[in-house]
Amino acid sequence: xxxxxxxxxxxxxxGAIVQINCTYQTSGFYGLSxxxxxxxxAPTFLSYNALDGLEETGRFSSFLSRSDxxxxxxxxxxxxxxxxxxxxxxxxxxxxxxxxxGTQLKVEL
Amino acid sequence: EADIxxxxxxxxxxxxxxxxxxxxxxxxxxxxxWYQQDPGMxxxxxxxxxxxxxxxxxxxxxxxxxxxxxxxxxxxxLESARPSHTSQYLCASSGVRxxxxxxxxxxxxx
Lengths: 109, 110
Prior knowledge:
Oligomer: heterodimer
Structural class of chain B: mainly beta
Order of helices and strands of chain B: EEEEEEEEEEE
Structural class of chain A: mainly beta
Strand content of chain B: over 45%
Radius of gyration of chain B: 13 Å
Strand content of chain A: over 45%
Number of strands of chain B: 11
């Protein structure tokens, strides 16, 4: 299958660091990306990893380990506006873009 | 800002009606996608296309059909709407790294 697994919910306080994990199926894998979706809104792109290692974009970083079929999104200096759903997405064979189960992040004061 | 548009944004329609959800992008992307998403749930891929005249079914079985006659246009059609089709439908297009989403169509079949 093409399933990607994520924790369903994560809660953290403002200013903290949080990590959202994603495991995926390896067959026909090209890359892993991350998207943010606020309630009622459309998903927006955050980051993409095709190779092992860390990609940093401001307060957000994403990591990929192809040998472990695993990646994570790291959010630093959390702000209330970061409360949203976060999805990992797998680019696979045939140009399919398949999304994970999603993680709802709640940022508290 | 993403140049991908979906119409209508909201649609309430009776059972048995034929509907077409429109999706257009002006970025020249070859890859386009349709997803179905219920509130608070994951995005399920129902159709995708990697270019003109190429379409594939996604991972979630759907009674809808799609066409890709022009690069910029990727409409989705339901021949006979049913209450089980009630959901949000999201269209996206992508380049090498990033996918851009339309604002979605919230479909309610009564």
